[in-house]
Structure formats: C-alpha cells, structure tokens
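Quick one, probably user error.
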C-alpha cells in the first residue's frame, strides 16, 4: 500500500515562561509573569489545584498558572477555569507520549523528532498559554497586540529551531484590527508563517462581521493565509455560553469549543464576511467535524426547514456553498463525523490534525495508521484529508 503523506493541521507549542522577559517590549513587561508549565508529579504529591487530589506515580500533569499583574491580568487566577485534571485519564499513556519532552520543557527537538520519526511532513503550530493571555475585557488593543507580538517573535525563532516543516500561526487579538493586520503581514514576511490564529471568543464591542474587521480579512486573503479559528477551554470571554454549566468542567470545554466554532461560522457566513472576501479561507479547529453537516443546513433551513433554498438577504450563495468554497474543518482520525460530512458537504473540506503537545493529542504517533484504518471512508478521501486539503488550506510548499 502506498504510504500516504500527512500534514498535521493543528499542533501546539508549549511556551516557556521566559517568553515575556525575552520577547515582550519593555514597557509591557510588568504585566506578565509565569503562565504555563508541564510538571512530572512525584508519587503522592498533589498537583491538581482543582480538587487537590494526589496523582499516580510518574503522572504527567498539565498546570496552567495565570498571574494577575498590574492593571491587566493576563487571564484569571481561577483554578477551575485555568487547570485541567488528569485524575481520571490514563496518565501512564501521557507519560509514554510526552514524558521525556516534558522533562525538557518541550524543546524544539521534540517537534523535529515527531516529524522525522512518525512521517508528519508539516505541523501547523498553534499556542497553549497564548489562548488566555489577552482574555481580559479591560485590556486595550495596543497592549493586547504587544503581547501577541511577543508570542509571535518567540514562535518565529522556535520554528526556525525546529526547521523544515514547522509552520507558525500568527496569533492576533481582534480589538485593533488595523494593528492585527499589520502583525499578520509582518509575520508572513519575516517568518513565513502559514496561518493566523484567532480565538473565536468575542472581544468587547466588536463582532467578526463588523466593517472595522474587513482590513484584517482583506490582508489575510491577500497573503493567502487562512484564519485558524481555535477556541480555548473556559476562556473568560466565553462566560456567556458557560454560565449555564457551573462546575461541569468537561461540558464547559465541549460547549466553548463546538458552540464557539458554530457561532464563528455563523458570523463569517451569515454576517457577509465570506461574501465580501471570496479569497479568505477559514479553518475550524479542535471542535470535531460533525457539527458542520448539521449547522450549515440549519443556517439555511431556519427552524423547521421552511426557508431552505430561499435566498438569504445580503448573500448571493447559500451557507453550504460558502463553506465548500472557503472553509475547512479539522478532524481527529477516529472522528465519526467524517463520513457524514463527506456525504453532506464533500471530502475536500476536512483536514487532519493530531493536537500534538496537548493531552488529547497523545496518540500522535499512530495518527496516520488510525486514518488508514478509518472505516466507511475511501482511500481517495483519506488522501485528501491527510494531504491535499491542507495544501489548499495552508500556503505550504509541498517540496
């Protein structure tokens, strides 16, 4: 059987705490302290700040620490929102997948090894701590973009250390679309970044389809880089969605990821952004792909289907057409939504992803094999998901 090539459309870096001292402009440094680290917990030592329970011997735990500094806290020091418990996970499996790299604070060599050993030719690198660092309503656009610039500077150097196949995603904040567009252009020109990371959680007083944002969408379309819409767990700006689920942390994460993607999809399509910017590309990440089959039809059909196939005011196409033309959605290799989405939308809108660097991505080493073994999907479609579609989504040189 022909060995299929694979592009990982959604991997994650683990940013060092030194990023702020080394890359943030001096006038903003008093705002930032420690943010994220991987730790190996000795036997009997509790590292879970949520329930203070002990972890199993040699367990790998993920601790997100957000400090309140100065006027603008970079997130919230809310352990329920900012930590993830591995108490009920298979921590031994995590140790096997990540243990040696966790001890080294996830060096660039980890990504080089994964690509070389496991046949992943390109990895699109999205943040971890960067999801939360500007999640403060009172923060102004200038400060938010300074923090994003620091992350992007670090990521540019990090990708250079990894070498061939490492593809950065420029991280932006939407509060100042002009500054965000300027930063996207800088990152593409200086670092050859292949995507733009945007958290779909809304920023205060600005919606994705507001005219003020058009300068950003036009810049991304001109440069050929897609908007990677990657939600985050329990982001402060998601509270409107999450207030109904107090204490249900796993459910809150599911809601913020999936419903965040659905709302962003609605804004970009029904708000006319894709109509105004026909060359703009979107990639919906880490929310599964099954929602797209249902949601796009429902946007057109309305409550009971009575408006299906009727023209939508302000749009020249229907939601499915826009999605087929300009959108992609990432899928895990065992996602049961792949086959239905192929049937309803097509096999050209799905990209593969491992989520390497995060606990959910601990099966990265068998991603290609899992895709090859996926039932009810043709080999032609698998080839598109693993390779062809990502080449259309991201401006990657395949050679």
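Nope, works fine. Designed sequence:
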């Amino acid at each position: 059987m022909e060995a299929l090539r694979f592009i990982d459309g959604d991997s994650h870096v683990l940013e060092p705490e030194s990023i702020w001292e080394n890359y943030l402009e001096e006038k903003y440094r008093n705002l930032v302290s420690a943010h994220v680290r991987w730790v190996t917990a000795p036997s009997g030592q509790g590292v879970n700040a949520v329930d203070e329970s002990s972890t199993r011997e040699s367990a790998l735990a993920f601790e997100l620490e957000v400090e309140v500094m100065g006027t603008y806290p970079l997130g919230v020091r809310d352990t329920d929102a900012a930590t993830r418990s591995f108490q009920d996970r298979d921590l031994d499996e995590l140790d096997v997948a990540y243990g040696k790299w966790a001890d080294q604070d996830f060096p660039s060599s980890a990504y080089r090894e994964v690509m070389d050993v496991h046949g992943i030719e390109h990895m699109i690198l999205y943040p971890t701590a960067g999801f939360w660092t500007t999640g403060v309503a009172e923060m102004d656009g200038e400060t938010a973009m300074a923090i994003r610039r620091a992350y992007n500077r670090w990521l540019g150097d990090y990708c250079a250390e990894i070498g061939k196949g490492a593809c950065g995603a420029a991280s932006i904040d939407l509060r100042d679309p002009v500054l965000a567009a300027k930063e996207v252009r800088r990152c593409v020109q200086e670092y050859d970044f292949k995507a733009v990371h945007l958290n779909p959680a809304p920023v205060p007083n600005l919606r994705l389809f507001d005219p003020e944002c058009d300068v950003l969408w036009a810049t991304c379309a001109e440069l050929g880089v897609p908007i990677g819409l990657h939600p985050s767990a329990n982001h402060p700006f998601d509270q409107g969605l999450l207030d109904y689920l107090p204490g249900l942390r796993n459910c809150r994460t599911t809601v913020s990821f999936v419903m965040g993607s659905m709302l962003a999809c609605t804004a970009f399509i029904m708000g006319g952004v894709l109509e105004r910017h026909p060359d703009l590309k979107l990639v919906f990440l880490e929310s599964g792909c099954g929602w797209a089959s249902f949601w796009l039809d429902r946007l057109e059909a309305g409550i009971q289907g009575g408006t299906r196939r009727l023209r939508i005011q302000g749009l020249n196409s229907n939601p499915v057409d826009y999605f087929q033309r300009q959108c992609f959605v990432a899928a895990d290799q065992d996602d049961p939504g792949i086959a239905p989405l192929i049937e309803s939308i097509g096999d050209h809108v799905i990209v593969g992803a491992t989520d390497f660097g995060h606990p959910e991505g601990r099966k990265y080493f068998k991603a290609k094999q899992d895709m090859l073994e996926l039932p009810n999907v043709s080999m032609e479609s698998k080839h598109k998901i693993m390779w062809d579609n990502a080449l259309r989504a991201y401006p990657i040189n395949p050679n």
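Residues 36-89 have pLDDT under 50 and may be disordered.
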